[in-house]
Specification:
Elements (H helix, E strand, L loop, with lengths): L1 E2 L5 E8 L2 H5 L2 H9 L9 H12 L4 E10 L2 E11 L6 E4 L11 E2 L4 H17 L3 E7 L4 H5 L7 E10 L3 H8 L2 H13 L2 E6 L2 H19 L11 H14 L5 E8 L2 E11 L2 E9 L8 H12 L7 E6 L3 H6 L2 E10 L10
Parallel strand pairs: 5-7, 12-13
Antiparallel strand pairs: 1-2, 2-3, 3-4, 4-5, 4-6, 7-14, 8-13, 8-14, 9-10, 10-11, 11-12
Helix pairs in contact: 3-9, 8-9
């Protein structure tokens, strides 16, 4: 136990097996909301969906390390053992599906975070494993809690659009190429962009995304996580778990009765993540993906969204739209790296 100046005696615990699912509840979300850099990838619904539909199929065993006292958790980290790795390794839970990984907990509770690190060290040591922390939020709660001497490297670039930056939005609106394409496409049939939040609405439309994505990427070796049965099952689990919790926004761009582009996105507070998109290649010359994104930029402030996160990847279209750019952090951590020298 770690005694604190306020009289608490903090201890760490590890949750494994079927009990892991029960960790992801409203109390977990309350801790996540204390994290100023949290996203939907820290939500309880995201974790439950992934555990139910993906973990076993990818050879991942979930576990959660918590720190707290008197039944009150003050810090926690969700992890997975990778049974497919050549050597023992612990990773953030839901890797590589999540764009951002972080712990949840009370910012500034130094004793709580120290206790969590003690727990992470003990769990890693007991398994003879290293912590492989990829796509960690730079400057997030876990990054700040980890000792400064641990070498940090750059993971994926990330970028997004601040939807309250009027000057930037005016510049985007002035991109004439897409105004011309919008007019040309609108002459063929009525052009409409709609956003769906209800679980049944999203569930009934998900097949559009799957079909468009499969057609768009068929036979292309650079496709990322194509829609096989496991991936499609993961998305359907997200709809079941995340939509009722208010964490999904599904967007469709239609030309008449034809759905020509889709965006499957996640919502956390006022942050939106564009997670998976696809378009109808028959409409390629009209840039339907760009037209849909521009409609989202126009519509989302009315939904209370202030940041449109374009997530991981150094793609030219992201750079053309974004006015904020950063990168995630990656590091490999041994159990000994987490133990203070005075121990």
């Amino acid at each position: 136990m770690t005694p604190t100046p306020d009289g608490r005696r903090l201890s760490w615990d590890v949750v494994t097996g079927d009990a892991v699912r029960d960790v992801f509840d409203q109390n977990w979300d309350a801790l996540a909301r204390l994290n100023p850099k949290a996203t939907a990838f820290q939500s309880a619904a995201w974790h439950r969906a992934w555990i139910e539909a993906v973990a076993a199929g990818e050879g991942k065993v979930p576990l959660v390390v918590t720190a707290g006292a008197d039944g009150r958790t003050v810090a926690a980290m969700a992890l997975q053992e990778d049974l497919t790795a050549p050597r023992p390794v612990l990773q953030p839970l839901t890797a590589p599906w999540a764009d951002y990984h972080d712990a949840v907990g009370v910012p500034g509770d130094e004793a709580g975070w120290r206790t969590l690190l003690d727990g992470l060290a003990a769990v890693a040591s007991s398994r003879g494993a290293e912590l492989e922390l990829g796509e960690l939020v730079r400057g997030g709660l876990l990054d700040r809690a980890l000792p400064g001497g641990i070498e940090r490297g750059q993971a994926s670039p990330v970028c997004g659009i601040e939807l309250d930056a009027e000057g930037h939005l005016q510049a985007l609106a002035g991109m004439k190429e897409y105004a011309v394409k919008h007019r040309r496409l609108a002459r063929l049939a009525e052009l409409s962009c709609r956003h769906y939040r209800e679980p049944a609405e999203i569930e009934s439309r998900l097949s559009h995304l799957v079909a468009l994505h499969r057609a768009q990427w068929a036979g292309r070796p650079e496709a990322v996580a194509p829609f096989d049965d496991l991936v499609e099952g993961g998305f359907r689990a997200m709809v079941r778990r995340m939509a009722p919790a208010g964490h999904l926004v599904y967007t469709e761009l239609s030309s008449g009765d034809n759905v020509i582009a889709c965006y499957f996105g996640m919502l956390w507070e006022r942050w939106y993540c564009g997670y998976r998109t696809a378009y109808d290649a028959d409409y390629f010359r009209y840039s339907p993906g760009h037209l849909m994104l521009r409609a989202m930029i126009d519509d989302f402030p009315g939904l209370g969204i202030t940041y449109l996160d374009l997530t991981r990847g150094a793609y030219a279209y992201k750079a053309a739209y974004a006015n904020r750019a950063d990168h995630n952090t990656r590091m490999r951590v041994r159990a000994a790296d987490l133990v203070p020298q005075h121990h």
